[in-house]
Write a structure and sequence with these properties.
The chain has about 160 residues and is mainly alpha-helical. It contains 7 helices and no strands. It has helices at about 1-45, 55-70, 80-85, 95-115, 120-135, 145-150, 150-160. The protein is elongated.
Length: about 160
């Protein structure tokens, strides 16, 4: 009887090992199948589409919000200045974007220039404000002629500010 018990245990153990190996193989096949499907979807572009681009109005709302909370990349910008710049921006054109922010910055530059002798501290604050606006006017990169023009203006004024 001892040999019959041993034979049963051996057969039972072999069956259990087969089921475990079969289950692992089945899981492996499932994973390979899923990876194949994902590769097919990504090659057709179904997974690669991502989120749709934001509209200009959505960009404006987000930018003002970031200025309000001091979020990147609008750190240091007054939300009212951002709103004012966006009043003259009606498209996603890079040059129009630059002009909108440069217009507000130019106003602070002129005010700072007029206050240099009478109120140097206020003039300095205006120059810093203008520098932030010039810098954001070229954001995220100076990829057009007008987006390149704020950089020299901002740099020149920044160097002229009193220490």
């Amino acid at each position: 009887m001892h040999s019959a018990t041993r034979s049963f245990k051996t057969r039972h153990s072999a069956t259990r090992n087969f089921k475990t190996r079969h289950s692992a193989f089945r899981d492996f096949k499932t994973i390979v199948s899923l990876l194949t499907v994902c590769a097919g979807l990504s090659s057709t572009g179904l997974l690669a589409q991502g989120a749709p681009e934001r509209t200009l109005d959505e960009i404006k709302v987000e930018a003002v919000h970031r200025a309000e909370v001091g979020g990147y990349p609008l750190i240091g910008l007054d939300p009212n200045d951002v709103r004012e710049a966006f009043k003259s921006i009606h498209t996603r054109d890079k040059d129009e974007w630059a002009e909108g922010f440069m217009g507000v910055a130019d106003r602070y530059m002129a005010e700072g220039k007029s206050l240099e002798k009478t109120d140097p501290a206020k003039a300095n604050a205006d120059y810093i404000r203008a520098w932030h606006l010039y810098f954001f006017g070229r954001w995220p990169t100076d990829s057009s002629p007008k987006k390149k023009s704020p950089t020299p203006k901002a740099s020149k004024r920044f160097l002229l500010m009193p220490a």
